[in-house]
Please model this.
Amino acid sequence: MIELRPIFSTLRRHKTTAWLLVLEIALTCAIVCNAVFLIGQRLQRMDLPSGVAEHELVQIQLGRIGKSTEAMAQSQTDLAALRLIPGVKQVAVINQLPFSDGGASNSGIRLSPQQQQDTLEATTYYGEGALSTLGVRLLEGRDFQHGEYADFGTIIADLHNGDLKNLPSTIIVTQALAQRLWPGQEALGQTIYVGKGLPFRVIGVVADLGRPNDLNQGPEYSTVWPIRMTVADGSSYVIRTAPQDRATVLQSAVAKLKQLDPNRVVLVKRTYDDARHEFFANDRAMAGILVGVIAALLTVTALGIVGLASFWVGQRRRTIGVRRALGATRGDILRYFQAENFLLASFGIAFGMVLAYGINLFLMVHYELPRLPGIYFPVGAAVLWVIGQLAVLGPAMRAANVPPVVATRSA
Model:
């Protein structure tokens, strides 16, 4: 049984060094808890479902030198040619892809035409055959029929002229969006309003379809509209093929498109896996940096404990020798230094938890991060206790091995 009174008496004589170690442990505890939490947030973000057949898709985006007056006809010709390439299962012209770091197309959604402010903002996907090409899973309702599609250019012209009679009137939403708008209700048949009160009736609900970016707005709040696109509108050719055929199909598709119109330049050619990897590159880098910070802090803290314990062992050789001469065993000396370190670590961890909570509140206010879960506090405490005990073990064993006769001769 370790008596705490001699430990506190010793620490009072070394207040400055003891408090420095306590503050070091507190700062390490606070930063490590929040850093581990941030790493978890990054990993969770990187694991978000896209809702598409990720390993089967390739993307090609083109730009044209000069003007084209037959963009829709060119797109239809391209689509027909791409479908003939061996290995191509489906192909569509789509305005954007989930987690692709492109310019997102979004629309504010209202639940009534009289509503003054949008309920939320959702991503809008356009493209004939987008759902089947992307491999999005339809949970309820149906996909769009051919006659429901309208050309993007025609819609823009009609909106400019104030002609609304030919605008699409149906829409497909994600399950997450449906649950957000109509909790506990059936989404099919519901009507949403966008823009200046334009009504759209929900005819289908899909499982998942992630945003291209701006994931803080609700990563799965997406809608699909029956709008036919062309590459001249900034959209891309998205091809679905077998995973093992992606490289070959991508090369053949680019060659075919260049052959059909040499005045076009390829802006983007990649698999969807590459697109997603590029999108989350900053998240991986941030997670790596935080892992490095944690490792550095724990190493510095461990070295600080080793250095301070070694210093105290050197300062207390006479005291150790006296205790050994009075019958203290090596195990008693070892347990003494371990108990002393445990107390200092406990004080530091207690202060560190308060500091960690304060740092998390700051991050919540200024960076919209969620509250730090309580599970991180005991986990962080356990890690620092273990590191502290391992770090002090070497100096404590050296103290326990000091011969009584040598210690007393130094008096």
Remarks:
- The chain has two domains: 4-47+282-409, 96-228.
- The chain has a mean pLDDT of 88.
- Residues 330-367 form the longest helix (38 residues).
